Amino acid sequence: MSSHASETEMSVVPTNIVGRIQHLTRRKDIDFSEWVRELLQIATWQFDADCACFSRIDNLELEVVECYSNGNVVSKKAGDVVALGSTFCSVTAGMEAPLMAPDTRKNEKLSGHPGVNRLPEAYWGVAIRFGGAVWGTLSVVADADGSANPDNEGILTLLAGILEIKLENEEYRAELNGARESYRQLSERLENLQQVDLLTELPSRGALFDYLNRELNQLIRRDGEGAIALVDIDNFHAINEKHGHEEGDRILKGAATALRQAVRNYDYVARYSGEQFLIWLPDTLQSEVVKVCERMSEGVAQCSIDNKPVTISIGYCAFRSDSEKQIPYDRAVDKLINLAHNALSEAKVKGRNCAMSASKRPVTITSITN
Question: What mean pLDDT is reported for the chain?
Fold first, then answer.
């Protein structure tokens, strides 16, 4: 928060990334420079970094427009000009996607940069586009190895988009309708950030429960059967420790794709937690769930590590509707997930790489909500 903000304003700034971005985009009481510094502060906070800069590219020079530092390092100042080629931003400017390098010395695009031994050890950057061309860069740096949070790429892209919109608004302030449309698109992007897991592109845990409550309601109304399954990638923490988080991310993405392909179009696959996925199988008999589990295991096995197939453990709970009475759907969903989780624990105890059912027969909705 800028030093110009009042104590009252500071006390109401949200502590989560989406809340902070929304708070900033609604501020109309500060000028462009102060607004940009606040955005840079958000970026520094999200990446647990030392400094963030918004810079403009002019031919072969990089001019700092605004810079924010947490005080741990000596930072550049607005108006500073350096040779573009002496910075990592020279690489970022030529890329469509953000450049994510929590360890610049191991990054394939930066390890050979002439300044790699004197520039920060962690760097995240994205090109800022305006008027159909690269206008400049948004960069975040740290003097020590940084976080490999899978959400950071999407958040950096979002912050860049906000800056691009702000530039447009500054340039075309009179075009009010265009500005309103830009903010509408921004709101949609913020909402999407909350609803979609950025790494796997599956629905997030935040989107999951609203969907399940609604779907369970509809299934019970038509007196149907279904199942909830929890899928856990076996030995995932060991994979991360041995091969690193980039390889772990590759496995997560591959598993997400395989799970989507193993189920029907109207089934639902969401990322439930770190290496766990939740599968909603409406209008599915318990005998059919076994076949779905086999397809999911075979699909994920196409992902490999050390020339060995990746395996999964699955716990599922099949259920059926047995009452038209009003029931607490959120409680029913929680109970079904808990039963599936218990079955998943049994699968792990049995040695992993298998699927376990919560019961021999489908449980009834009444039995788990009474």
Answer: 86
